[in-house]
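Running low. Got one?
___
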Amino acid sequence: MINLTVGEKVWQAVVYFILILLALLCLLPFLYVVAVSVTPESEVLRRGIVIIPESFTFLAYKEVFISHGIGQAYKITLFRTIVGTALNVFFTVIAAYPLSKKYLPGRSPFLLFIVFTMMFGGGLIPTYLLIRSLGLLNSPWVLIIPNLISAFNLVIIKGFFEQLPAEIEESARVDGASELQSLWRIILPLSLPVLSTISLFYAVGHWNSYFDAIVYINDSNLMPLQVILRNILLNVATQSADSLANTGAVSTFAIQMAAVVVTTVPILIVYPFMQKHFTKGVLLGSVKG
């Protein structure tokens, strides 16, 4: 750093400037959303939308939580994300582990069938009829069971298992360990990076999903957070007309932005704790996948 030439220092300054500019371009839209959600209606009318408001109000958040069932939607989404991710990872691992063994009879047809499902699906109506015949309509389990194993994630974990040295398992067998004991005590501890990455994939997928809830669920008490957000963004103008008339201090746009913040912040809090495993896990698991 000290021995850099003038030209290298200038180039380094240009690179830092570009990186800071790109970071601001990514950060400003979210700051704008947060600012709109806490800006009073009177200030919006006077100054327009600003990044740093003169005064703050949380009436938009109060409106979102009281009038739009965000609390109940949070329970459903947390149940879906936590339980669904745990089941997803469990069933993906117990499916990927035997498929990573080249001596497994019928391994190639199984893999071909799994890859086939990545390119072709049954379609919406046949899937709906299957879900109905299984009695899963209007049940929170319909948000988890139909997508219990992702073929893409299974291929990633299988590829990671295949890269682990076979000598590790052979030594475990010499010591008398069974396949399940080798998986639980040796393979899984060595696979924490890819398991963290897959868990993040599943968790973000559950958190953001809404279409399956729209198709398979009619009970408003079972709607996840993203469906409520969608309803707020589409219908808040008419739904909040009465409340706006009563308060006069929060705009419809602020309510929409508050809903966006409420549904986005939790995943932003979780992501930094998983990020250190994210790149490493994807690269290690997908090289031979």
Notes: The longest helix spans residues 252-286.
